[in-house]
Amino acid sequence: MRELATTGSGGVPLLNASGCLDALTAPEVARSLDAFVTKTVTPLRREGNPPPRIAETGGWMLNSIGLQNPGIDGWCADSLPALERLGVPLWVSVGGFSASDYALVCERLDEVEPVETIELNLSCPNVDEAPESAAELVAAARAATTKPLFAKLSPSLPDVADAARAVADAGADGLSLVNTVRGLALDPLSLRPRLARGAGGASGPALRPLALHCVDACARAVDLPIVGMGGVTSGRDALELVAAGAGAVALGTVLFADPLAPGRVRRELAAELEARGCSSATDLQGSAHESTFSALPSAG
Amino acid sequence: MTASVETPSPGLVLGGRPARREALGVLGCEQLGPYSLLRLERGGMEPGIPGQFFMLEAPGQLLPRPMSLCQAPPGELAFLVDPIGPGTRALCSLEPGAAIHALGPLGNGFDLNVERPLLVAGGIGIAPMPYLSEALGAPPAIVGFRSEAHSEAAQDLLPAAEIAIEPQLVTDLLAEDPGDVLACGPEPMLEALRRLVPSAQLAWEAPMACGYGACYGCVADIEGRYDRLCIIGPVI
User: Fold this and answer.
1) Angle formed by the axes of helices A261-275 and A235-244, to 10°?
2) CATH superfamily ID and name for B12-106
3) How close B221 comes to chain A (CA, Å)?
4) Smallest Cβ distance to B63: which of A22, A28, A56?
């Protein structure tokens, strides 16, 4: 992500995962990142799902927030001025229920100068899906704006590399990998779902192998910059996503437990690089793709 | 984790209020009836305003747990915990020598600028009352419990409180003109109080992942809109 300057050593821009930070209630946390990604904005105001919206279950977090947001008009009127004053590079997450929804919001944001990048939320498990494919949604967004478009994909796709190729062809400028995966938790006494809407998005450290696989597979399939995310809690987790091919890393669920995680992850990442004798993480970007057998002598 | 000397964190502003995050040593955890009083070293933390809460790291759990500050003796922060799930049970099992991270103080506390305070609590809702009582000069208090066994906690925490044991309810003990009610307890109790005393200050509860407005998990229906209890509450 050449347009993202980094504030820490190691050269890996850190962002928050969309929906995991409100810059206006935690401005210093937002400022500790290299860019702030908003909660998904939809055409109309959404109240979101009724509570209970969150649960912890077996090492995962489940959420069913339901894209509560003021809608693009409310966001432009109320949130944008305050976000501008904050002075953190701004990525806006865009969601909707049809291709025209994505186009509508992207068209509005196209005129908003402080918006650096648009992240397309194509994969939220907590709302009804748009009928069009991810590629069709990206194409609709592409036609509506010249801003950089990052497509956020689900780890549950049958072939994430295929999806990456399809959204790349449709005009995506980058990938955000990964969103949450669907999960369910039952109350042990009632044996009914603990979340009001039933299933929710599962996140946390257990998501990391899925995120690593998706980043790795997509980095091999397309030549697009990737923001890697999914269960990152440490500098080593971040480094592994970079090794898999990510150029930037986002912190999600860890921010709930530790709003100071960005500073800690940066320190840990710097220590990891120093231990490996690397001055920059970009030295190691994609190193997971190098053949592990290249150093071995051939047989015979 | 073991107790360690950790550089205090820089101050953060969360929800417009100053907060810190630090690892605090465990001083002890004593049972009070069915509840436990978890006592932590205060470290560099500010206790905040009665009604505010802290997010406490729960050993073995992914997410911290929200706990109202119960008492703030010098050098300490104490929390009353009801062990109803894996996180609260982990908090109740902490032993001296351990340390857990705490984030706070968080949320909207009680408005102490009241003329005739009356504290009303139900069950674990007694948790913020000792700190509140101290701040208000030990005003009258009514606390309701499910059973005698549950009420054991009240004797140590609010010795002068009037106790109601089910089927008697706290609302049965309210005077005609109860004054400035400050309450914490189960939703049906808070809703009944709101109907009887429209001006009552009510401390609501919700499951929380972050406690500082990031996740939108803790919303409650406030006059037809979903609002984050960690930001506009818990005291509304």
Assistant:
1) 60
2) Translation factors (2.40.30.10)
3) 9
4) A56
Helical residues (DSSP H) of chain A, grouped into ranges: 27-31, 71-74, 80-86, 99-110, 134-144, 160-169, 208-221, 235-244, 254-257, 261-275
Phi, psi values for residue B12, rounded to 5°: -120, 155
Contact B101 A258 (CB under 8 A): yes
Peptide bond connecting A262 to the previous residue in cis, omega within 30 degrees of 0: no
pLDDT tens per residue, chain A (300 residues)? Answer: 545 655 554 679 999 999 999 999 999 999 999 999 999 999 999 999 999 999 999 999 999 999 999 999 999 999 999 999 999 999 999 999 999 999 999 999 999 999 999 999 997 777 777 767 999 999 999 999 999 999 999 999 999 999 999 999 999 999 999 999 999 999 999 999 999 999 999 999 999 999 999 999 999 999 999 999 999 999 999 999 999 999 999 999 999 999 999 999 999 999 999 999 998 998 999 999 986 554 555 554
Structure tokens at B11: 């101050």
Torsion of CA B133, B138, B139, B141, to 10 degrees: 60
Q: Which residues pair with B24 in a beta bridge?
A: B100
3-state secondary structure of A148: coil
Tell me yes or no: is domain A14-289 CATH 3.20.20.70: yes
| ipTM of predicted complex | 0.95
Q: Are strands B117-122 and B141-145 parallel, antiparallel or unpaired?
A: parallel
**Partner-chain contact B62 A205, CB within 8 Å:** yes
The neighbouring-strand residues paired with B122 are B144
Structural tokens at position A277: 């004798």
